[in-house]
Please model this.
Amino acid sequence: MSDETRMIRAGAVIGPLAKTVGPPIQRGSTVLLPNAAVLYDDDNYVTYGRAGLSAQAGLRSALAELEGAAGVTLYPSGMAAISGTLLAVLKAGDEILVVDNVYKPVRRFCDQVQQQFGVTVTYVDPRKSAEDLVSGASDAVRLIFLETPGSLTFEMQDLRRIAELARTRGILTATDNTWAAGLLFRPLEHGIDISIQALTKYVCGHSDTFMGSAAASDPNVLRRLEDGVTNIGWAVSGEDAYAMLRGLRTLPLRMARHGQSGLQIAQWLQAQPEVAAMYHPALPGCPGHDLWARDFSGTCGLFSFALKPASNAAVDAFLDALQLFGLGFSWGGFESLAISCAPQLKVRNFERDYGGPLIRLHIGLEDPMDLIADLRAGLDAYAGLAR
Ligand SMILES: *Cc1c(COP(=O)(O)O)cnc(C)c1O
Model:
């Protein structure tokens, strides 16, 4: 054979792969099939790499176990998991109810894309009772989209009751389960049809990889989700799937620490004179605490608190004085982060008084006493200007 041909054939994997603790990361669009008879046998063979190879298959199976689901679909970001789910289950003429506290880019997708395809979007107050929410739904409502707790303002919905009532009316339910990471709350066990996660956050755990998932158990819903991924053409890389699987190995350990430190810091904040109110569902006395206690097995490190009313300059002084907390969006990584929430709340339909300017914290894996000292320095800077 000539050099050209020899160099194309050289180095092909022969024989079984050595067994490592993680799955092999396969890079491949083309999949070589063993014989002509199975070229089109999509039921028994992976015939093309876009469907995912070993690492993606390992991740899907691990997430299905985490969420207690029959199957899981993967997307290149959490946002794609949400848009992919909505595109897969809704059609022109349908109406969707969306909780008003939803992750802001979801609202943008609903307003700019769903409406463009003839889907009516109605925002509902997240504090509405399950009964009022479902009985108020028109006959065109096909899906209720929830996020519990909301990731800025931490409202809790009674997902179990909403799912039960929605089912009697033939309405599907989906929830953004990123806060619980599929670990602290398992929506499908409470009757929710689709549990969506931004794996980018806690499952990844290192703030360096995007991915999203949708988990379902009903075969019709699962088929729609899988068809949706195929039809739109989403794919995730083996490297990224591997990174998610690696994060998943330590998710329970990391989450226990995030949750414990977060509660310790929330309790400390609650006692500071500069703080007006806490928004942390796992903190006794906070809105939604009873539902959290009933349904969730633990807490993550994401919560908000309101400073006592003061100027924007005082709020900025608080944030700028922080040395250990980074100023940045996203959460779920090993590092602590802080943001002010006000600009993101402007798009909401149902206004609410939080008692003062709202700050969201993500508590990372640092020593909580160091984080408390950092927050105290921030509050001192705030108090200097608030007086
Ligand atoms: C970050 C986030 C998403 C979107 O995830 P990306 O991977 O960044 O697209 C969705 N929902 C919630 C609650 C989030 O915090």
